């Protein structure tokens, strides 16, 4: 079985990379890909990799912002569906996405009712984590106005800069995949003193390692 684990930055999966250096299983071929921050980097580097080496499973692992202040920092979730949060046009004071401008159709592949939905087909032993919705943006939200616009329009649980591009590529290539995110901060007026990046990375990697260990045991 060939598994590709992707991340935007090396530090997000460093504990997992360290784990790989000391654990080998001939039945599972593990590869990591650091594709860079944002949708552009994700689409290019992931697209190149999938074209050259077709894995049996792709996992995107990363930290994320959360819209629900009741969530604890470090909570790790699986993203069931993704949306592009800032791809569209400004119409005076309003933002219209590409579906509202009729440039995309709601069920134009790989979209389902305007969303990039993961049915988790072919994913072995999917982790028993809460499955939530994500929104992907080019600029990390840092104001109450932007936060509220995203909530009103997309009602997402988490925000990232890569998730929708990842879903888009894997859905089009018809490769089993899932996106794993751990909460490092709330989506609010930017205050890095409240962020818990080390905790989020720890929880993210512990979940990832546990999943791979379980696959190795059943193989």
Concise summary:
With 219 residues, this protein is of the alpha/beta class. It has helices at 14-21, 39-52, 144-154, 163-173, 197-218, and strands at 2-7, 29-34, 57-66, 76-84, 88-91, 94-97, 116-117, 131-136, 158-160, 177-186. The strands form two sheets. The protein has a five-stranded mixed barrel with strand order 3-9-8-4-10.
Protein described:
The chain has 219 residues and is α/β, with parallel strands linked by helices. The protein has a single domain, classed as Rossmann fold (3-Layer(aba) Sandwich), CATH 3.40.50.1580. The protein is 30% helix and 27% strand. The chain has five helices and ten strands, in the order βαβαββββββαβαβα. It has helices spanning 14-21, 39-52, 144-154, 163-173, 197-218; strands at 2-7, 29-34, 57-66, 76-84, 88-91, 94-97, 116-117, 131-136, 158-160, 177-186. A five-stranded mixed beta barrel has the order 3-9-8-4-10. Strands 5-6 form a two-stranded antiparallel ribbon. α1 (14-21) runs parallel beside α5 and α2 (39-52) packs parallel to α4.
Topology at a glance:
Elements: E1 2-7, H1 14-21, E2 29-34, H2 39-52, E3 57-66, E4 76-84, E5 88-91, E6 94-97, E7 116-117, E8 131-136, H3 144-154, E9 158-160, H4 163-173, E10 177-186, H5 197-218
Parallel strand pairs: 1-2, 1-3, 3-10, 4-8, 8-9
Antiparallel strand pairs: 3-9, 4-7, 4-10, 5-6
Helix pairs in contact: 1-5, 2-4
What tags apply to this protein structure?
five-stranded mixed β-barrel; two-stranded antiparallel ribbon; alpha/beta; 5 helices; globular; Rossmann fold; single chain
């Amino acid at each position: 079985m060939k598994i590709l684990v992707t991340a935007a930055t090396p530090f997000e999966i460093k504990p997992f990379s360290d784990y790989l250096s000391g654990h080998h299983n001939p039945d599972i071929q593990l590869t990591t890909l650091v594709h860079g921050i944002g949708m552009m980097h994700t689409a290019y580097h992931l697209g190149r990799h999938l074209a050259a080496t077709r894995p049996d499973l792709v996992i995107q692992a990363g930290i994320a912002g959360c819209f629900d202040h009741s969530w604890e920092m470090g909570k790790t979730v699986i993203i069931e569906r993704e949306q592009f949060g800032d791809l569209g046009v400004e119409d005076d004071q309003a933002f219209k996405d590409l579906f509202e401008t009729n440039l995309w159709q709601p069920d134009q592949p790989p979209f389902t009712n305007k969303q990039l939905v993961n049915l988790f087909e072919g994913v072995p032993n999917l982790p028993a984590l809460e499955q939530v919705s994500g929104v992907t943006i080019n600029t990390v939200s840092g104001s109450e106005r932007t936060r509220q616009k995203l909530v009103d329009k997309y009602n997402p649980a988490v925000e990232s800069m890569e998730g929708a591009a990842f879903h888009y590529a894997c859905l089009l290539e018809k490769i089993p995949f899932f996106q794993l995110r751990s909460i490092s901060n709330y989506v609010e007026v930017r205050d890095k003193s409240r962020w818990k990046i080390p905790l989020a990375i720890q929880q993210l990697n512990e979940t990832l390692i546990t999943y791979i260990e379980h696959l190795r045991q059943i193989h």
